[in-house]
Amino acid sequence: MFLARLIYTSEVVEGFDQADIENILKVARERNEELNVTGMLFFNSRYFLQCLEGSRSNINAIYHRILNDSRHTNPVLLDYREIIERDFSSWRMGYIAETQNTRDLYRQFSPVSDFNAYRMSGDSCYRLLKHMAVSAPKL
């Protein structure tokens, strides 16, 4: 069994609110614990950027559920690869909300001034999440 990392982005649908993000995190943390999946989620009230790490079969199963989730639209796979070790092993699903610090940070990795992972490479998104994770609470 090999470790893999999957990174995707998507847009939220109209009416998505704080209760939705809290529900997503609760369910993800419970499922990820069962499946030995780790990861990080960044949300800026318009876009999701998420990284999942675990066995290929488990992250593929999670991603297929994500694809069918009606709370977002236009999911795009940005990067998928086998990895030697996890970068987000402290998080069953870490969460980063947009702040002034994240806005300053993503300007280092993006060709545009406003966050839009659709305009970023998979590697840039991965590096952005790694930098953001430094200050994220371990969950």
Topology:
Layout: E1 3-12, H1 18-35, E2 38-43, E3 47-55, H2 56-67, E4 72-83, E5 94-97, H3 100-106, H4 122-133
Parallel strand pairs: 2-5
Antiparallel strand pairs: 1-3, 1-4, 2-3
CATH class: Alpha Beta
**% residues in beta strands:** 25-35%
CATH fold-level name:
Alpha-Beta Plaits
Main sheet strand line-up? 4-1-3-2-5
- The CA-CA distance between the termini, in Å, is 25 Å
Helix content: 25-40%
Mean pLDDT: 90
Number of distinct helices: 4
Number of strands: 5
Model regions low in confidence, pLDDT < 50 over at least 5 residues: none
CATH architect. name: 2-Layer Sandwich
What is the string of helix and strand elements?
EHEEHEEHH
Instruction: Give a quick account of the main beta sheet: strands, pairing sense, barrel closure.
Output: 5 strands, mixed
Q: Compute the gyration radius: what is it? A: 14 Å
Shape: globular
Q: Can you describe what's shown?
A:
With 139 residues, the chain is of the alpha+beta class. It has helices spanning 18-35, 56-67, 100-106, 122-133, and strands spanning 3-12, 38-43, 47-55, 72-83, 94-97. It starts with a strand and ends in a 6-residue tail after the last helix.
Characteristics:
single chain, 139 residues, alpha+beta, Alpha-Beta Plaits, 5-stranded mixed β-sheet, 5 strands
Short description:
With 139 residues, the protein is an alpha+beta fold. It is 35% helix and 29% strand.
